[in-house]
Amino acid sequence: MVDQGTLAKEDEAIRKVLADLEHQIENMVTAGRTVERIKEELGAGYISGASSVFQSRVEDWMARYQKVTGAFEHFMQSTQGANQILNQAEEDARAHAADGIFLGLQGD
């Protein structure tokens, strides 16, 4: 049987995962901005055929990087949504438990 302490630890684990994901996404956004800034600086000060190829490749990389960042954001939103659904289901079960059945199943 699951006790209340285990539920609290699982909730804390989900909160930690969400915080870690949010931190990772912030780092990814910062890295993307840094690459974009460097590309712009090179574009402004380095004019040549090699510069055009370099900028084109950086733009391609940026497009793929934005897709990865978007996937991380989608994963975080999905995890948040799943957590909210689980929390709501637990609240609903508590609210609709007849004769303490839900509490009995928890081992209380």
Structural write-up:
With 108 residues, the chain is mainly alpha-helical. The chain starts with a helix and ends with a helix. Helix 1 runs antiparallel to helix 2. The chain has one domain (4-106): Orthogonal Bundle (Helix Hairpins). It contains three helices and no strands.
Can you lay out the helices and strands and say which pair or pack?
Layout: H1 4-45, H2 49-96, H3 101-106
Helix pairs in contact: 1-2
Brief descriptors of the model:
rod-shaped, 108 residues, 3 helices, Helix Hairpins, mainly alpha
Explain briefly what this protein structure is:
It is built from three helices and no strands. By secondary structure, the protein is an all-alpha fold.
Overall structural class, as computed from helix and strand content, comes to mainly alpha
Kindly estimate the percentage of residues that lie in beta strands according to DSSP.
Answer: under 5%
Order of helices and strands: HHH
Average pLDDT, rounded to a whole number, is 82
Instruction: Specify the helix fraction band.
Output: over 70%
